[in-house]
Amino acid sequence: MPGIVFLIRLREKRSKFRRVRGGTKMFRFIHAADIHLDSPLKGLDDYEGAPVEEIRLAARRAFARLVDLAIEERVAFVLIAGDLYDGEWRDFNTGHFFIAQASRLRQANIGMFLIAGNHDAHNKITKALKLPDNCRLFPSDRPHTEYLAECAAVIHGQSFANAAVYEDLSLAYPKPVVGAFNIGMLHTSLTGSSAHDRYAPCTLDYLVAKGYDYWALGHIHQREVLSEAPFVAFSGNIQGRHARETGAKGCFLVTVDSQFRTSVEFRELGVMRWETLIISLTAARHREDALDAIGRTLDELTATIPDVPLALRLELTGATAAHRSILGAKESFLAEVRAQGIDRGQGRVWIEKVNVQTTAPSDVERESVSEDAVGELRLLFQEFRRDPQSIVDLRQEAADILRKLPAESTFEEQLREPAWLSAMADEAEAWLMQRLLQDEDAS
Fold first, then answer.
1. pTM metric for this prediction
2. For residue 413, what pLDDT is reported?
3. Would you give the DSSP letter of residue 407?
4. How far apart are CA 396 and CA 411, in angstroms?
């Protein structure tokens, strides 16, 4: 008997959508994903001058801006396509913050629909608070459909049951409801991404052929529109968390007209932005020229991206005559670069890291010091780079030295990386060449 009653109620719900497609009122919704509330910071305290508190609270502030946007635009509902949380809460404050924001939406008569992803899967979040009645977390055992008669929309979705879901969940999603605007919510790697684990894989062709009007995807943190008819997209995360998550971050604001045609607009929500700047120093003749080039690039960036705090990683490249003077006194050079960030950024630029990848022009050494000295030094380092055993020997010698240093010294991880040891050899060569130049000038 209960089964019969359920089928009758389901048929009543579906009957509301048995109409000629379109003819309903316009509505808006927000597609967001990968909030990662209170994501733990990894090693930021080791960075001199890092805005630790700003970064720690960035995800919360970005989520509050999402709620502000929903209220200002009077959206019908908000979709969160997985990873609202970053894993098990440290305490209940994380849950309390979310409840407070969801309650703001409830006061504005806005619903929220969520699926759990790999970071907040059913078996990962053991702490729990009762959700406000405007929120619906989709189950993890099967796809589920929510019916919104007031805007003739239906939402299909399924949460992750555990952190590693390797089957294609989309295959079990139901057929589209006739006469309704069908939305599919899915946390997926799609066909795979080198930057993300391959969870709930599926194909774009299958999603397009499913017959839904909009696919709200999560898991990939880089925003990407995969199809416009129907609209299939990753919204990306709403706030970059580290130097590999660069650029503007936010959500999609979707408008659906009376004929179920969609227009999609990206809205930035991030309260700080990570960027990587590749700066060529080829034209720099001296150390001061290099600093001027860096300063001009910082000016251009801050003029292009006003008002948002910036965390920058600089990649210095090019065959430049300033190479030896940069690496020969690298510590002081990096200090001057960071000072450029403070000065040019007017308090809103933090330089997270400077990677010096410059090289010396091939003819610089011959013009500067005697051929014998240069040739001997160059030959020594060429032999070092050609012989794989040299890296092994260097690692062992460095480990012997490390054992004599204070316990808080942290070079163990770097010693396992041949690329790091090779970079140290480059710096050593540049420093020795700089000393040769100084000796030549003094003689």
1. 0.79
2. 58
3. T
4. 13
